[in-house]
Specification:
Radius of gyration: 25 Å
Oligomer: single chain
Order of helices and strands: HHHHHHEEEHHEHEEHEEEEH
Helix content: 40-55%
Largest sheet: 6 strands, antiparallel
Structural class: alpha+beta
Number of helices: 11
Shape: elongated
Length: 409
């Protein structure tokens, strides 16, 4: 049998057994419920502009679970093909390091930072007992799967919100995702004979006699606020940056098998490369002009509530409403008053992707018939995105060094 097909068949059998286990089904269902609760919480924290309640949050959680199954299969194949052996990774010290880093900053709860710390400790002090190539490959593959999931699912069910950037109010979207992954991993087990890989050489040298296959339930998370890009554009760009980080880390890991100097480079690149990915995203977001702001005339649409009259009319994010039943619409308060006073069907005119557009909105009891405009200049309810202290410190140091360098020239 073809080795690749044999591997896929073996992983498929293990996953099928796990998915039909009553315990796994109960655990997976509970995890989907927790993810739905997190989505509902994110919607409320963002001002609940989208509405939809628990029904929409549950739909988003089920979609994430579906994509998570795809990600779990992809991750299992990559881990299996690379020969990553979980028994050669110090899982307990890895989690301890991650939790300690979380006390410094919640966003540091990521294996790229904890793994880099453990790898550096191993190189400097010989502790803990961990295979650095296996650890770095695990981190790279998990982030590779995350980039795939961001690409596939990142743009769905975005949560609209009002944000204050500097002194300017604008609209944006909270892109928060959680994916449950059922991974098939290899672990050394002397009681298991002949249940390992087929007879072919994995990159990291896995598949020895006595290697067993086990299922592990994991959760990957992603979260960003986008004010300068549409949800689709933002998820595409984020996925691209994370994919490049994962690919480079995986390449350094493979090179370290032949040249030990790459062990140091992979261990250092794991946290620093991840920081670079986040910094590039923040830099891009802050340097670009907000997309969802009040136009010079009319009202820009930030989003529409699902299944609302505005949604059924075909209005999309970025559309600009200029007239209602032939009369000019000057600002969002003007549009709100118009939709409240006119109880029958209304005809809106404006711009769609820079071209003339028209929309017919049926009567609806929802506020503004489900239309969510960008915030006005004097809107009182909005979120302020906190500045990351680590990035602020790094930026100040960079500016200081840059100034000294220029003065030296």
């Amino acid at each position: 049998m073809n080795p690749v097909w044999a591997s896929i068949s073996m992983i498929g059998r293990v996953l099928a057994e796990a998915l039909t286990s009553p315990f796994s089904i109960i655990l997976f269902t509970a995890l989907v419920a927790v993810i739905a609760w997190q989505y509902r919480r994110a919607s409320r924290f963002s001002g609940d502009l989208r509405g939809g309640g628990w029904r929409l949050s549950l739909q988003a959680a089920l979609l994430s679970a579906g994509f998570g199954m795809v990600g779990g299969l992809a991750g299992s194949l990559l881990l299996f093909g690379a020969g990553v052996d979980l028994s050669r990774i110090a899982i307990t010290p890895l989690w301890v390091a991650a939790l300690l880093l979380m006390l410094i900053s919640p966003r540091l709860l990521c294996f790229s930072y904890a793994g880099g710390l453990l790898g550096l400790s191993k190189l400097l002090f010989g502790f803990p007992d961990v295979s650095i190539p296996d650890l770095m490959a695990l981190i790279a593959i998990l982030h590779l799967v995350e980039s795939l999931l961001i690409l596939l699912d990142g743009r769905f069910y975005p949560v609209p919100l009002y944000v204050k950037r500097g002194n300017r109010l604008c609209g944006g979207f909270n892109l928060q995702k959680f994916w449950p992954l059922l991974l098939v991993v290899m672990m050394q087990d002397l009681n298991v004979m002949g249940s390992g890989q087929p007879d072919w050489m994995a990159v990291l040298g896995g598949g020895a006699l006595g290697t067993g296959l086990y299922t592990v339930l994991a959760v990957l998370g992603y979260g960003e606020v986008s004010t300068a890009f549409s949800p689709g554009q933002k998820s595409l760009r984020s996925a691209g940056r994370l994919f490049c980080f994962s690919a480079v880390l995986l390449l350094l890991t493979f090179l370290s098998l032949k040249w030990p100097v790459f062990l140091w480079l992979s261990v250092l690149f794991s946290p620093l490369g991840h920081e670079l990915v986040i910094w590039l995203g923040l830099r891009e977001e802050n340097r670009k002009t907000p997309l969802y702001v009040e136009p010079g005339a009319g009202v820009m649409v930030l989003d529409t509530r699902p299944a609302s009259a505005a949604y059924r009319s075909g209005l999309k994010s970025g559309d600009v409403i200029l007239r209602g039943n032939g009369r000019p619409i000057l600002h969002s308060a003007d549009l709100e008053a118009f939709l409240f006073l006119v109880s029958e069907r209304v005809q809106l005119e404006g711009l769609h992707s820079g071209q003339p557009g028209a929309w017919t909105i049926e009567p609806s009891p929802e506020p503004m018939r489900g239309l969510i405009p960008v915030p006005g200049r004097h809107h009182s309810a909005y979120l302020t995105i906190p500045t990351d202290s680590l990035f602020s410190f790094a930026s100040r140091m960079f500016r200081m060094l840059k100034g000294r360098f220029h003065r030296g020239l």
